Amino acid sequence: MMVSLKQVSKSYHPNSLVLRNVNLDLRKGEFIFVVGDSGAGKTSLLKLITGEEFATSGSVSCDGVPYRAGSSKMLKMRRRIGVVHQDYKLLKDRTVYENVAIPLFFGRAGAQVPPVSFFGRGAQKLVEDAIMAVGLSPKILDGTVKELSGGEQQRVAIARAIINFPDLLIADEPTGSLDHDHTWQVIDLFQKLNIKGMSMLVATHDRDIIRKVRKRVIHLSSGAVRVDDREGACIF
Prior knowledge:
Layout: E1 3-13, E2 16-26, E3 31-35, H1 42-50, E4 57-62, E5 65-66, H2 72-78, E6 81-84, H3 96-106, H4 121-133, H5 150-162, E7 168-172, H6 180-195, E8 199-203, H7 207-213, E9 216-221, E10 224-229
Parallel strand pairs: 3-8, 3-9, 6-7, 7-8
Antiparallel strand pairs: 1-2, 1-4, 4-5, 9-10
Helix pairs in contact: 3-4, 3-5, 4-5
């Protein structure tokens, strides 16, 4: 999956830009970290790429398909993207199983994983594999999300995002609520998925991750790309 942003700016209020003339290409199979201070525009950038929001000016496209509201092609494209939101976006009164399994109901465009019965044997295996991949026990699947700690909820959100093996995983501070060991378990998982062909776009404040993983780094400041370091040597 190839994502391209050309001269993209984003404004929520007149005369106040949160992104300024951003040019960025994400190639198939790349692993990119997005860094910057709070308010630098990281979350807004990720939302433009997922199609949750649209650029005020400039263009965003995926595999040559421009992002336009209501476009059927864009909706199919979004099904090839897994998203880990900073605030998790979990259904707190539903079970962990139901939260993780939601993407299976829709399948994936051009999917390795077609739509499956929500509670079928095939779905159960995929859900258990995803939840164990993030270091959680299948025993929690029948409980509700609101019973879990913040760190556990964060890992459930990651399991949901990867269950369909999307072409692109976009993660906004995916380790923000995790301790050291679970942080590195998640980062190791991301690297393994990347080796298998999943593209990664990860926003983080964690300098230690940037220093040790050494992947491409996009540094945002005041809504603009200040550094695009393909060698991963940038320590923000």
